[in-house]
């Protein structure tokens, strides 16, 4: 419900600030605001290419949105689904493995001191290694390219899920009052785990899952360097090798789009699991 | 409810013997409680009253089993306290309902842990919810409830497990004056039915006199029981009673006793 100036009496001390803030035609509508942000982004990009902007950053050789649109059209009139499907399968499989492993290990590390001591040091050592550095080992370790690619996408998703789960469990355990509430109801450790720690760490796990989803896509181009034929990341990499620039940008945007969409789905799905959470932001109605 | 009443009136004797607590910080010993000695009879409403820093919450936490004494011990019905348990219900000062459970689920939790069947859980919880006027909020999450409602739910969450002792740590301190009075009357109303032993911590003199059978006035540096005062005001009590001469005289008497300690604790910072 948007607050407009007309809702508030003339004499109200809020009247003036409301008049300044409320713009019922354009900016008050959040979908319009969001579309406007995208239009501005592409508009500025087109403008920079059209004018041949070259001031430290050079846009002269950057494909303009129109060229990218053309490449996209070509891509979709050919056979896009085989590429999209193979990329999607790799990301989803890698993500599924990474998130289940991340949650299970994260809970163990957060809940048991012994697991923290035994598991965390090697994991912390592996965490800063970028996905691209895994390529040679992925080739050596895995029986085929497909499993190597799934491995590399899962590397991207695993660590955010793991760390967020550990932190979520730890921060719930640090909430003395909630733990005491459980103890006074006769809860044994298992009950505290089930009724307090699991739901208490869910917001943190959910943000790990959302970030992990994005990171899995993030690693796709890296992973598909291993691919022989198909994949959105493969096209992107292949176009770079053949100096065909518009499809690179198309591939980038396509990955961005699929990544954003799947992160959105994850964040919606996890949000639905937490009906007790209400988020009120500054400036929200 | 009647069955519970009979059962309740024979249990809930709290004995505190030579209880001392000190914490060590940076090599220095900080004595919080020294040689606390007190006995609370089954069904008694005891109030621990004192200025901030007198260790009244620490004393309550010891009875709850949240912390361990440096010396001495606490027993409830001759059983020494070693850890928290459902036999000692606790109502916290902060709103402490689990945010991810509805009112009903929060109250039900203790019974669920104890392994009660679903129909008997529902019967007991709904009975209490009706009792404190929360039935229509049974499916609300804590964020949808007012502070007073949340504390009512917290009290019921503790009582539904029929504890021997109900421990209350300034449960109404965060509420506005109007709601606080309502809550005090509601608490007395329930307590008169159940006759559970209550240990109620507060720094509010009027609240302590209005609620308690007996006041333990605590002093500071280190925390100790300075005075014990039986309150013989007739029950059931109503808000009007706080305006009686008897009440005002008691208030003055307690105020004098506590004033000195408050000054001491203010000087100590």
Automatic annotation (TrEMBL), chain A:
Residues 84-266 form the ABC transmembrane type-1 domain. One of its GO terms (cellular component) is plasma membrane. The chain crosses the membrane at residues 35-57, 92-112, 124-142, 148-166, 205-228, 248-267. The keyword Hydrolase does not apply. It comes from the Bacteria. The keyword Methyltransferase does not apply. It is a multi-pass membrane protein. It is found in: Cell membrane. Its main location: membrane. It holds the Pfam family BPD_transp_1. One of its GO terms (biological process) is transmembrane transport. Keywords: Cell membrane, Membrane, Transmembrane, Transmembrane helix, Transport. Belongs to the binding-protein-dependent transport system permease family. This is ABC transporter permease. It comes from Vasconcelosia minhoensis LEGE 07310. The lineage of its organism: Bacteria, Bacillati, Cyanobacteriota, Cyanophyceae, Nodosilineales.
Automatic annotation (TrEMBL), chain B:
It is found in: Cell inner membrane. It is a peripheral membrane protein. InterPro entries: AAA+_ATPase, ABC_transporter-like_ATP-bd, ABC_transporter-like_CS, ABC_transporter_ATP-bind, P-loop_NTPase. One of its GO terms (cellular component) is plasma membrane. Residues 14-245 form the ABC transporter domain. SUPFAM superfamilies: P-loop containing nucleoside triphosphate hydrolases. Pfam families: ABC_tran (PF00005). PROSITE patterns: ABC_TRANSPORTER_1, ABC_TRANSPORTER_2. CDD domains: ABC_NrtD_SsuB_transporters. It comes from the Bacteria. One of its GO terms (molecular function) is ATP hydrolysis activity. The keyword Cytoplasm does not apply. Keywords: ATP-binding, Nucleotide-binding, Transport. Its main location: membrane. Belongs to the ABC transporter superfamily. Nitrate/nitrite/cyanate uptake transporter (NitT) (TC 3.A.1.16) family. This is ABC transporter ATP-binding protein.
């Amino acid at each position: 419900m948007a607050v407009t100036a007309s809702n508030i009496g003339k004499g109200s001390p809020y009247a003036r600030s409301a008049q300044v803030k409320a713009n019922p035609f354009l900016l008050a509508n959040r979908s319009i605001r969001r579309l406007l942000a995208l239009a501005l982004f592409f508009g500025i990009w087109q403008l920079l290419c059209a004018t041949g902007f070259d001031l430290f950053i050079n846009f002269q050789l950057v494909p303009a949105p129109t060229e990218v649109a053309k490449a996209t059209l070509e891509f979709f009139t050919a056979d896009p689904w085989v590429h999209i499907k193979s990329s999607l399968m790799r990301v989803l499989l890698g993500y599924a493995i990474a998130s289940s492993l991340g949650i299970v290990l994260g809970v163990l590390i957060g809940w048991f001191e012994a697991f923290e001591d035994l598991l965390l040091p090697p994991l912390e050592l592996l965490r800063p290694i970028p996905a691209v550095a895994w390529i040679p080992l992925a080739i050596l370790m895995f029986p085929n390219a497909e499993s190597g690619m799934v491995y590399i996408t899962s590397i991207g998703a695993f660590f955010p899920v793991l760390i967020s789960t550990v932190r979520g469990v730890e921060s719930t355990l640090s909430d003395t009052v909630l733990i005491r509430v459980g103890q006074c109801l006769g809860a044994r450790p298992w009950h505290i785990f089930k009724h307090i720690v699991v739901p208490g760490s869910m917001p943190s796990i959910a943000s790990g899952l959302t970030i992990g989803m994005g990171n899995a896509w993030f690693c796709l181009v890296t992973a598909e360097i291993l691919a022989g034929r198909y994949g959105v990341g493969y096209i992107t990499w292949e176009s770079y090798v053949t100096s065909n620039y518009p499809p690179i940008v198309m591939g980038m945007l396509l990955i961005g789009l699929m990544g954003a969409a799947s992160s959105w789905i994850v964040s919606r799905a996890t949000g639905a699991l937490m009906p007790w959470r209400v988020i009120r932001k500054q400036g929200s109605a | 409810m009647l069955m519970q009443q009979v059962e309740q009136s024979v249990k809930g004797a709290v004995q505190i013997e030579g209880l001392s607590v000190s914490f060590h910080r940076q090599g220095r010993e900080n004595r919080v409680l020294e040689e606390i000695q007190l006995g609370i009879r089954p069904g008694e409403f005891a109030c621990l009253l004192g200025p901030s820093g007198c260790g009244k919450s620490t004393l309550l936490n010891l009875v709850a089993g949240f912390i361990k004494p440096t010396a001495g011990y606490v027993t409830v019905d001759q059983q020494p306290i070693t850890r928290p348990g459902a036999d000692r219900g606790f109502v916290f000062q902060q709103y402490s309902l689990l945010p991810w459970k509805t009112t009903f689920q929060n109250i039900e939790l203790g019974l669920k842990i104890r392994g009660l069947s679903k129909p008997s859980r529902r019967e007991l919880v709904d009975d209490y919810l009706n009792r404190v006027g929360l039935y229509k909020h049974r499916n609300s999450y804590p964020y949808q409830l007012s502070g007073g409602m949340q504390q009512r739910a917290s009290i019921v969450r503790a009582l539904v497990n029929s504890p021997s002792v109900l421990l209350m740590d300034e449960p109404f301190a965060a509420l506005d004056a109007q709601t606080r009075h309502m809550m005090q009357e509601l608490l007395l109303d329930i307590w008169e039915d159940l006759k559970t032993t209550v240990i109620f911590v507060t720094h509010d003199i009027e609240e302590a006199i209005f609620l308690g059978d007996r006041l333990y006035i605590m002093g500071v540096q280190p925390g100790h029981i300075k005075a014990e005062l039986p309150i013989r005001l007739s029950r059931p009590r109503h808000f009007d009673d706080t305006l009686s001469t008897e009440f005002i005289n008691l208030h003055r008497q307690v105020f004098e006793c506590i004033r000195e300690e408050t000054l001491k604790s203010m000087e100590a910072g």
